[in-house]
Design a protein that fits this description.
Layout lengths: L2 E5 L5 H11 L3 E5 L5 H7 L4 E4 L2 E2 L2 E2 H10 L8 E5 L4 H10 L3 E4 L4 H12 L3
Parallel strand pairs: 1-2, 1-3, 3-6, 6-7
Antiparallel strand pairs: 4-5
Helix pairs in contact: 1-5
Length: about 120
Amino acid sequence: MASVVIIEDDSDHGPLMRERLERDGHVVHLVPGAAGAVAAIVAADADVVLLDVHLPYGSGLDICRELRATPATADLPIVIVSAYATAADLERGYSAGCTRYVKKPFALQFLANTVADVVGTP
């Protein structure tokens, strides 16, 4: 399956997301904030990143831009997972380079289906 890196500071959401994706056989790495996020993504050889926008020590949008600007991660699927989902928020996310935008709250099955879709797994 896929190597998934979740960048999420919420102590409830992050572990639930990790548990659900691990049940599908994914290898999941949970990073609790922006500090060290890009290094963790590279170290994990991530197939997909699930990225919150508002994080301690930085912005998920800045991480998204940095990943897009780096040749090794320029094509990496990035799914923004955020409670901020106005039209302007989505525009900022897609302008930063995200592949998909998932609004919180969401069904864990929907998230699992999104991951499967962006990494091309059944």
